Amino acid sequence: MKLRLLEELEDAWLPYLTPKDDEFYQQWHLKYPKLILREADSVPEELHKEVQEAFLTLHKHGCLFRDLVRIQGKDVLTPVSRILIGNPGCTYKYLNTRLFTVPWPVKGSTIKYTDDEIGAACQTFLKLNDYLQTETIQALEELTSKEKSSGDALPVYIAPDFPRIGMGSSFDGQDEVDVKSRAAYNVTLLNFMDPQKMSYLKEEPYFGMGKMAVSWHHDENLVERSAVAVYNYSCEGPEEESEDDPDLEGRDPDTWHVGFKISWDIETPGLAIPLHQGDCYFMLDDLNATHQHCVLAGSQPRFSSTHRVAECSTGTLDYILQRCQLALQNLRDEVDNGDVSLKSLEPAILKQGEEIHNEVEFEWLRQYWFQGNRYKKCTDWWCQPMTQLEGLWKKMEGVTNAVLREVRKEGLPVEQRSEILTAVLALLTTRQNLRREWHARCQSRIARTLTVDQKPECQPYWEKDDPSMPLPFDLTDIVSELRAVSSSLEAGELRPAERHSEDQTFPCH
User: What's the pTM value of the predicted model, to 2 decimals?
Assistant: First the structure.
């Protein structure tokens, strides 16, 4: 899609507007009505002071890290350093990377921070979160009221059949619940970048807006139609803040901007909105779905706090612990030799168990350890849960071993053996492929350049013949033998007398 758009443009830039352009505010009102800017002087001065001190505190303690993300099969180090702060046990996933919250101190929680200053900073971002939530609800109510007063006319860039849940209808009790849920920010992703320390930044490709800190994108992994609120802290002194040079064409390259465009639209001008110290902007309702945004670098360092309603249905500690318990319901007590037995050989139950096994290993354990020891910089909150998850995962290794033992059993009906193989073979193949991929990522050239705090660890990892593990780390031989048996069954070649001898080749600890 991007290449096709660039081909259509050929050598021409698309038009974009800044506040210097006469039609800037008219275009904003007509085409970007769900984008709201609150300038710094509308935010309480005391909150500015606390938030800006909190940014500097976290930076001083080395709490923000560049992420080693996965884009189109390649590992890339983000130019922006980040930290996720939010509800205890929440995670947020972007670009195939799961970030784990440094918890803010919500009522009823007990969080041990590595330094009191870090704890105070997290408290400040919770305070900012409450403030931005109130502002968002007010902005959503105003938007609803405006849409109601202007009738049911749709903005010209939205197709008539586009769903408009909760907007354009009378503001009743259900709408009030809906509005509050869409502003119920549960995490904030803090960002920092010093452009002068970056040897290379991409040029904005469509409008010629200059260097980008963050490329065009939709924010990922959010509750549908939920708002996003952003607090901007460009590290500029008051004497450095100046109006745009009227003779300068386009946006001022020394000032940070946020760029907006309607997705895949080459007719409507884009917007480049200057961001000054303490400004806040809000993306309301479906704006994040219908539009894309980018961050255009200025010349000075900049922090931002981006408050989101993360879609956490599969992204909380409570969720994954419940999934682990579900997988282990099929487990009988261990026998004396450490082996386990299964309550059911129902293919759907076995498949579910292996799916959860993969989920906890690749969506949680390996994601966490790939980021090194960064989270211990701020708190030990995740240490015990990760130890617990690894213990549950290890029991699932025992479950997989028990499944393989059943497949090997002499006298198992051919049809049942085939059904079990069909249920688990693809999942074990995926497990082997992903283990190989994560192991390679931890050894990559770019991973080796990272500091000790964030150097990826391949965990869980164990050597061949580790007596504490029921199965090897490398599942190549097991997968190959399972495939051979499966092929034989499909071809009807495996006679009863051969079953036992065929199965003896499975590696087993």
Answer: 0.89
